[in-house]
Design brief:
Oligomer: single chain
Strand order of the largest sheet: 4-11-10-9-8-7-6-5
Helix content: 25-40%
Radius of gyration: 20 Å
Structural class: alpha/beta
Largest sheet: 8 strands, parallel
Number of strands: 12
Distance between the termini: 51 Å
Strand content: 5-15%
């Protein structure tokens, strides 16, 4: 296994159709799913040379601690469909590689077990502000008690997007698995939570910015809002005492036709004006992708599907291998670009491809 593409191909060959299609699919015609990856190819690197890169420092300080390199693991649902050890395997790999894991609230291993597996590793917890506010509050308190250092709140799912592949497959969680963070006494039975209708019933389409104020009153943990793509929402978010923004389009699984996250990143960074940390996920598949995102203003990037591919290959060891490839590629890209530390990664390192191939003037 030499690249993330190798892990993707292996996962597609070994996972059952139910799991593979769920993990790999996007919304509707999957325009944004394709564009998330292709957009990175539209940007070019402008390396500088004769700079001392004999010692390269990739460490970065995030909410709750330092990580060894600025590539972390995004929240993705139901890791146990990829490997029996599921989220605990992912957590062990992240800790071993010295990076941050964001646990999905739709995990097949509970918050507490993942924390135990993570040990001293940096971990954040992804949540929704559910229709049932008491359930939301309980999840927040459990995450705090279990040592999660930040909350990642998904904004872009007032209801579940349309994924044609899941509809054709009548997707459901395998019977031997369950969504581990919800008791039988919660508003919906565990075995039903993965269904489109039931999940939508948990979500609250009436949410507005007052919900963020409510959450701020529940917790003192840093709040990172996931799913923002515009300057307008960036400005609004900062008014509500949040600490970070994760530029994301939900892995292209919600609204098809939205921009690739790397294309949306400059608008959000410009609007943020350094007042909050900005992160990115969506389409990162190489170390150079991470380098481009950092040059364009992201503090760190997150990968989702690649961790699942690693799980499908060899459990925790597979996730570790995926992260090591990304770390090594990123460090190499820094060296070849003349960057010895993250602060050397400047905006002028990246330009749009049209810089070298400007459109011909109309005659």
């Amino acid at each position: 296994m030499f690249s993330l593409a190798d892990f993707e191909a292996h996962a597609g060959a070994v996972l059952d159709k139910n799991a593979w299609d769920y993990y790999s699919s996007g919304a509707d015609q999957e325009q944004t799913l394709r564009d998330n990856k292709e957009a990175f190819r539209r940007y070019r690197l402008r390396p500088r040379f004769l700079r001392d890169v004999s010692q390269v420092d990739t460490k970065v300080q995030l909410f709750g601690g330092e990580v060894a390199f600025p590539i972390c693991v995004s929240p993705t649902a139901m890791h146990c469909m990829a490997h029996p050890d599921g989220e605990t395997a992912t957590a062990r790999a992240c800790t071993k590689m010295g990076t941050c894991m964001v646990l999905s609230c739709w995990s097949t291993t509970c918050i507490e077990e993942v924390a135990e597996a993570s040990g001293s590793g940096l971990r954040w917890c992804q949540l929704y502000i559910f229709r049932d506010r008491q359930l939301t509050r309980e999840l927040v308190l459990r995450a705090e008690k279990a040592g999660y250092k930040a909350l990642v709140i998904t904004l872009d799912q007032p209801t579940v997007g349309r994924r044609l592949v899941d509809e054709r497959n009548h997707f459901n969680l395998p019977k031997h698995l369950s969504l581990a963070n919800y008791s039988a006494q919660s508003s919906l039975k565990q075995r039903d939570l993965v269904l489109h209708e039931s999940t939508s019933a948990m979500l609250d389409p009436s949410l507005d910015w007052r919900a963020i104020d409510w959450l701020r009153g529940v917790t003192k943990l840093p709040i990172i809002l996931k799913g923002i793509l515009t300057a307008e929402d960036t400005e609004e978010a900062i008014k509500h005492n949040i600490q970070g923004i994760l530029v994301s389009n939900h892995g292209a699984r919600q609204l098809d036709g939205v921009p690739a996250t790397i294309d949306a990143l400059p608008e959000v960074v410009k609007a943020a004006r350094g007042r909050v940390d900005v992160f990115l996920d969506g389409g990162v598949r190489q170390g150079t992708d991470a380098l481009k995102a950092l040059a364009m203003g992201a503090k760190a990037v997150f990968v989702g599907r690649p961790a699942l591919w690693g799980l499908a290959y060899k459990g925790s060891e597979g996730v570790e291998q995926v992260l090591k490839i990304l770390k090594d590629e990123f460090k190499l890209a820094m060296m070849l670009s003349g960057c010895a530390k993250l602060s050397d990664i400047r905006p002028e390192l990246v330009v749009h491809g049209s810089y070298y191939n400007p459109p011909r003037s109309m005659l």
